Amino acid sequence: MARVKIDYGIDLGTTNSSICRMEKGEPVVVKTDTLKDTLPSCVSINKKGSIKVGDSAYNTMKSDKRRASKSGKAMDSNTYIEFKRTMGTDTKYHCSNVGRDFTSEELSAEVLKTLKSFVTDEVFRSVVITVPAKFTVGQKTATIEAAKKAGFDHCELLQEPIAASFAYGLSSEQKNGIWMVFDFGGGTFDAALLKVEDGIMQVFDTAGDNYLGGKDLDAAIVENIIIPYLKENYSIDGILGDKEKNTVLRDAMKTYAEDVKNQLSFKNSEDILSNLGDLGEDEDGEEIELDLTVTQQQVFDAMRPVFQKAVDVCKELMKRNNLKGSDLNKLILVGGPTHSPLIRQMLREQITPNVDTSIDPMTAVATGAALYASTRDADVNDSDIEVGTIKLDIGYEATSVEQTEWVSVKLDKTGSESSCPAKVLVELVRGDNAWSSGKTEIDEMGNVIEANLVEGKPNAFSVVCYNEKGDQLSCFPSEITIIQGSKVSSAPLPYNIGIAIWDDHKEKAVFKAATGLEKNKPVPAVGVVNGLSTSKQLRPGLASDLLTVPIYQCEDDPEAGRTAALYEYVADVIVTGEEVESLIPENSPVDITLKVDSSEQMTMDIYFPSTDFTVSKSLDTSKKQSVSEAEKLIPQMLRDAQRDINRLAESGVNTEALQNELNGVMDEDKNSQEKKAVLQHLKEVLRKIEDEDAGSEWNRLEREIREEFERLEKADGELGNDKSHQLTNHLRSQTDQVIRSKNVLMGRELLDQIRTIFFQLTMIYQCMGLIRDCSNNFGRYRWKDASRAQQLVNQGMAIIGNNPTVEQLQPIAAQLVGLMPDDEAGNKGGFLH
Ligand code: ADP
Ligand code: MG
């Protein structure tokens, strides 16, 4: 039977994945090849090039890690996990066994294909795949790409916390209130707050840590329990002191830690035993063996600080939403580690007593995805419908919070066989057989049937067709499902979306939020940025005349006007002269409209009011983020951050917290391969530095005003005349006044004035300096017309040597500046401002 709804949901997890489908109105998790509910998101490729996914791949990885500790050398791995982390980047996973690289999307596609292969009784081409609430546009586009590679024609995305609450909401008596989804996975942590009103769920804020999860618990167990045990029983100081050997040993130990951690969620104590010969030798040549008993208490003590980080994120999330623990009606647990009684207890004590443990934390997301999928239309081809079947056009709301729902049924004669009888009757029969609609006659105009719903669950109805004589006829669709009691409203934007515009004062492109695209706005949504102007002209027909509008997403204060490059880049929209009909001069007004659809794909309208002309563009978000570029940027950015902190410290700011944070990032840079994470954390520090800078701006400005005024006074004394004395005196009283007012804007204006007068007073020296510089460094400039420039320099140098005057030198200097390439004469790029 072809399905009218998508009906299949996949949780494509970083560590584990799962597939669930609707069967007679109930979500049923499809068992894996090892008869489990979840499949490790792990891919391994052997020498023959055959690809294994799931438990066998995960076991290969585990034994590889243990074996590597024997030699103390990292092995050439052909096993991959956590590639979800690099979705949307150009990261390559090298496979020496087949001699080629795999992308994150290709590996994810292998996981999807394997999940699909567990369904053997049905062909399906449409699917709902869940993504973290915080996934960027590029990561979402990459997920859709992976689904295409896995052979799905139609893929819809759903946010993981919404999926989990949908799974939960249906079985819950409670249809109103505020819920929190606490999703602690293998390597990521996400918290989401949802408002539930009459069963309608809406995420209104999210927080999380992309680098916190079960594997940090494993590392803590290694650090606090296994390493001390090894140190006590073996000589391993040398191994621990060697970077590679240390990593290899710890990686092997984490595999034991994971096993014991998972067991101790349900037991009081557990043994860690290694097989003889599994691990290598210590420095005295003694065979290393693990044989220790670990108690729940010991493991809990080791894990507590890791879980505490997640609890703190929740506290912060509640605080910024002015919520107390008692305001939370439910806290829903998702993710493997939430099996642990420790985190459950910590949440009860520190967040809310209303911790709910009624749903399976490993399958909640896939279950919710399937439920949601049952409300979304699948693509149905006529070839999917058997010959001789009567085709019906059925209209209904797939989710409802009412007791009954109207279902409209029309006969689709064009899609049906010509043998369709003159009179057709339809009956809806509810899955529990406790209710049926009775027969209603339908035709091409259609009719409506009131369907009676059971509360708080999906209601499957068989659609049964009869002819006049009462014979049953086969029809399509033959089943519909209406979910009663819950409804998902549209997904919220996970970030503020905006553009980069040029800030003349900062001389940098800064983030400007689009009004209407604030974080948590439900999509689809439309944003606008008005009152901008072009910084360069666009001449019609000229491809080299560019207007660039870069789009960024900002997770913190969108109004802070911080440097755009310190946020996550989405895509560029570029308008060239070829796309405009008439000249758009420099400084022309521009209004931007940015439309975001429900899967966060975007289009932009760039409107030029002076010529009443609009350019419309769709954004290409499929461009992969370059990880190697990120890596290259880090050292310079670290140096910049240190320089800025030093500067702040010199000006008397307390920079201790900033310095500690920067040191943390520096350590991370040394120890971690995840350069994307390093860059993200580094940008966070740089944003804080920028804020601190803005806060201490007045102090800097005051110092600058004083210094520049002193310089002016001196120049006035040496080179001035009556007029300049008068101006300087005027500026002196203004300086006193502005310094008293501490007004930054007035301060900046005054500084400009002081500089202008200084410049005019010293014009002759400025001109001489410029001409001399051009003469000394002639070859360094990419002159527009080198021979003319040479001529001017010669002329200028001759005048300088012979009682020069401003009148003589100024035109020469001005012409030389005109001959310099544009980007060396101060550049605003093609940005708006
Ligand atoms: P993801 O969403 O990242 O795919 P999962 O929700 O599947 O992750 O969680 C995987 C993590 O859960 C792993 O670190 C695993 O060790 C841990 N885990 C699985 N079962 C248990 C358990 N019983 N107790 C504690 N942790 C567990
Ligand atoms: Mg998960």
From TrEMBL:
Entries under Pfam families matching the protein: HSP70
Sample GO molecular function, one term: ATP-dependent protein folding chaperone
Transmembrane segments: none
Protein name: Molecular chaperone DnaK
Coiled-coil stretches: 672-718
PANTHER family: HEAT SHOCK PROTEIN 70KDA
InterPro entries registered for this protein in UniProt: ATPase_NBD, Heat_shock_70_CS, Hsp_70_fam
Keyword annotations of the record: ATP-binding, Coiled coil, Nucleotide-binding
Family to which the UniProt record says this protein belongs: Belongs to the heat shock protein 70 family.
